[in-house]
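Handout for the seminar on molecular recognition.
Each group receives one record of this type.
Step one: identify the two inputs.
Step two: read the structure output and locate the region that could contact iron/sulfur cluster.
Step three: write two sentences on what you found, then compare them with the reference statements printed after the record.
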Amino acid sequence: MRGEEIFAKARDRVTLSRDEACWLMREAPLERLAAVADEVRRAVVDDQKVVTWQIDRNVNITNVCISGCKFCNFHCKPHQTERAFITTIDEYRQKIERMLELGGDQLLLQGGLHPKLEIEFYEELFSTLKSLYPQVRLHALGAPEVAHIAKISGLSARVALERLVAAGLDSLPGAGAEILDEGVRKAISPAKPSVKEWVDVMHEAHLMNLPTSATMMYGHVESIEQRVDHLLTIRDLQARCPEGNWGFIAFIPWIFRSSGTRLEQEGVVSQFSPLEYVRIIAVSRLILNNIRNIQASWLTVGKATAQLALHSGANDMGSIMIEENVVSSAGAHNQFDAEGIQKAIRDAGFEPRLRDQLYRPREYVAAVK
Ligand code: SF4
């Protein structure tokens, strides 16, 4: 009976308590949970038949990083000069030209926490890219990178964000959240900017009306309660966003991949369960009653599970993500091209609709091969 009361509240998009959220995450019957989350998705989206997708290109600014995340095979230390790189403008040009041929409209720019690249480097990079390709959106950095750049440049997060936006930053990805719990963070990302810094940077972005997204990487050392608290932190942060500002446009959970990571060496091995992922998507839809878009991360969970997620609360399939290096270096090798992602959406029973970062529809033009 209590379960049905919780489902009724969730269906009405009432804000759920921590206890109720924990019940959903731990005990709720999955079939019923997914059905209620699907009902809520239908109530929230403009067109129930539509699932959105995106074309963008991931480019890594640098792989030099002092954070030492134990789940990351991508980074190298500053002294590992044989592996270290900083992407050059010529390389950006080639990658952007190819992205434009494939119909993309956005760069997802991410990198490590480089100890020497201060804010002037990013201002120069963003303004150069914008002057060369004014039509390309820069979805760039992430809260930990902004906190790091601000710190080594002697700036507040607010001033750093203002300068980055003035140089061309269009929106802030939700990367680097993992699980928003200081204990978990110390265990898996010992030198990364803190949970509080992540929250503070995102809040500043919301006050400035800079569009953002939020993420969760689960399935490593966290407890069920810590997953729930992560979602509640995101929900509370969104509730503090001034009315009418973008805030978090989307929430994207994904599974930790352990292959070859330091966490794996320490005995933390990822055990992917499609049903657990469906539960996370459905619970996210019900707890995050103030975030409109829930994204199925096909890149980390694969086509079939992502399709299931579309019937369990997710309304977006994410990007075909031309060139991804971080999760693929830890064992996620799923791939889609534009035709493939649209077919996957159709096969799941929906109509695909290409969108931009702000979830505005775009016209799809088949790419030059
Ligand atoms: S995940 Fe990002 S912040 Fe962490 S080590 Fe890798 S590059 Fe650095």
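Reference statements: The domain at 2-354 is CATH 3.20.20.70 (TIM Barrel). The longest helix spans residues 224-239.
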